[in-house]
């Protein structure tokens, strides 16, 4: 059994796939699970560097990578990429986030 | 679940045309070899984006395909290609083994590095008749490629001469 330690979201305020579509429901869900949600605004240089590292090491990396990207960090130290926005249609991003938050990934603890 | 079915059922977006008009873009699946490629275009045929789909992605093959289609409007670099992983939990599919279902590679026309507001720029279109790529000015009104346009003109001339256009 492993426990969720924190949720990480790499995002931008100007991106409608990110705000409010992804950030708001993920922050709310993380709060319900009593896990911190760490946000990395790619327009903030310090946060961007950390977000870049997350995406490069664990996510869907490309030179001009897609946002939003969501990661789960567990108490075992594992960091898992679980979501990237659907560039083709914001409605697909909305549906994808809804599915993700309803899935076992966002249950209090996963085995 | 076959890749084509997955794309048609789960990744069939209806976004607004990007960088050309206010109409909705529709996904057309173009080919499956060497990889499945989809193209979002508006009713005028303007191509907003191309998407490659695969259980594993061949980014070189995708870039080669996009470069060939878009060669008249400019080069395509690694920076212009973005990738995404789709999982069972965000697609909401139950028929697949838990975890990664497929990956997508995206190329967008007139976006970021290649963004231009020049109304006289060349742009990539998809022929609304035969589905081949062609280029014209972004404000161009042709919805057919030069070949289909030529066929239509020939048929009109034959019809006037009393032929049957075959």
Question: What does the model show?
Answer:
The complex is a heterodimer of chains A (111) and B (166). Chain A has a single domain, classed as Glutaredoxin. Helices cover 33% and strands 26% of the residues of chain A. Chain A has helices at 23-32, 45-58, 90-102, and strands spanning 2-11, 37-41, 69-74, 79-84, 109-110. In chain A, strands 1, 2, 3, 4 and 5 form a 5-stranded mixed beta sheet that branches. In chain A, strand 3 (69-74) and strand 4 form a beta hairpin. The longest helix of chain A has 14 residues, at 45-58. Chain A is globular and about 35 Å long. Chain A starts with a strand and ends with a strand. The model of chain A has no long low-confidence stretch (mean pLDDT 95). In chain B, the strands form 2 sheets. Chain B has a 5-stranded antiparallel beta sheet, with helices on both faces. Chain B has a two-stranded antiparallel ribbon with strand order 6-7. Chain B is of the alpha+beta class. The longest helix of chain B has 15 residues, at 146-160. Chain B has 4 helices and 7 strands; from the N terminus they run H-E-E-E-H-E-H-E-E-E-H. The mean pLDDT of chain B is 91. Chain A binds chain B through residues 60-66, 81-92, 95-97, 99-100, 103-105, and chain B through 11, 13-15, 27, 40, 49, 51, 78-85, 87, 89-92, 104, 106, 108, 112-113.
Fraction of residues in β-strands of chain A: 25-35%
Per the CATH scheme, the topology name of chain A is Glutaredoxin
Q: What's the order of the H and E elements of chain A?
A: EHEHEEHE
Helix content of chain A: 25-40%
Low-pLDDT runs of 5+ residues of chain A are: none
Alpha-beta content class of chain A: alpha+beta
Poorly predicted residue ranges of chain B: none
Structural class of chain B: alpha+beta
Strand content of chain B: 25-35%
- Write the element-wise H/E pattern of chain B from the N-terminal end onward: HEEEHEHEEEH
Largest interface: A-B, 27 and 26 residues
**Biggest beta-sheet profile of chain B:** 5 strands, antiparallel
Largest sheet of chain A: 5 strands, mixed
Report the span from N to C terminus of chain B. 42 Å
Given the C-alpha coordinates, what overall shape of chain A results? globular
> What is the overall number of helices of chain B?
4
Distance between the termini of chain A: 4 Å
**CATH top level of chain A?**
Alpha Beta
Discrete helix count of chain A: 3
**What is the C-alpha radius of gyration of chain B, as a whole number of Å?**
18 Å
